[in-house]
């Protein structure tokens, strides 16, 4: 899964990397750790490549809490199918977090996971439009997840969908078969870096 991530890359560097043509962002996202329930920077493609701030967590009425992750195995379900087909996005980050259990102890280590020699990760996501309690419309997203690679399976059995090198195909394609092939491609060819910050070692849960 992916329940937190970190971003501190300069905003203009992100716009350049993704060749953003339009931005609706008035206030840049504060650098640091990002939590569900907050507004986050996403990249999407409509008539133009654009950057927007969307809520992390899709608040469907049938769930007790907003959905922050959607399994790629579930994209054909009616609730997610239209979003996957027409409303895909990329969530830029420097690394994401997972918590590794310590054998025989009620503690976990918080692990920073990044791509080796790559500063910005491109996480895949979907988004949809919702209404708040006052009837005002807003957009929210969820991060797509896949089974973890062999390299990361000892930390967690799930991981976010990584799209580095495949961003354009993910954002622009309207061919279901091509999209499904894209997300089912093995991510084992990525080389990850794993780090446990000193202040997060033996984190009590």
Q: Please tell me what the overall shape is.
A: globular
In DSSP terms, counting alpha (H) and pi (I) runs of 4 or more, how many helices?
4
N- and C-termini, Cα separation:
17 Å
Oligomeric state as shown: single chain
Helical percentage: 10-25%
**How large a portion of the residues is in β-strands, by DSSP E?**
35-45%
The overall pLDDT, averaged over residues, is 89
* Main structural class: alpha+beta
* Uncertain residue segments: none
Query: Major sheet, described briefly?
Result: 8 strands, mixed
Key features of this structure:
globular, 39% strand, 14 strands, six-stranded antiparallel beta sheet, eight-stranded mixed beta sheet, alpha+beta, 15% helix, 205 residues
């Amino acid at each position: 899964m992916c329940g937190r991530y970190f971003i501190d890359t300069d905003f203009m560097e992100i716009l350049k990397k993704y060749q953003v043509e339009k931005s609706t962002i008035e206030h840049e996202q504060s650098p640091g750790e990002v939590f569900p329930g907050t507004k986050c920077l996403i990249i999407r493609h409509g008539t133009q490549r654009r950057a927007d701030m969307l809520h992390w967590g899709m608040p469907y009425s049938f769930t007790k809490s907003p959905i922050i992750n959607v399994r790629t195995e579930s994209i054909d379900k009616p609730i997610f199918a239209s979003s996957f087909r027409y409303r895909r996005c990329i969530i830029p980050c420097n690394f994401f977090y997972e918590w590794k259990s310590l054998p025989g102890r009620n503690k976990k280590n918080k692990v920073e996971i990044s791509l080796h020699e790559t500063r910005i990760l491109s996480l895949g996501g979907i988004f949809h439009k919702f209404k708040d309690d006052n009837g005002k419309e807003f957009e929210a997203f969820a991060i797509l997840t896949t089974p973890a690679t062999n390299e990361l399976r000892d930390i967690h059995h799930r991981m976010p969908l990584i799209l580095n090198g495949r961003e354009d195909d993910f954002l622009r394609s309207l061919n279901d078969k091509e999209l499904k092939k894209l997300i089912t491609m093995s991510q084992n060819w990525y080389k990850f870096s794993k780090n446990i910050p000193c202040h997060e070692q033996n984190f009590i849960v």
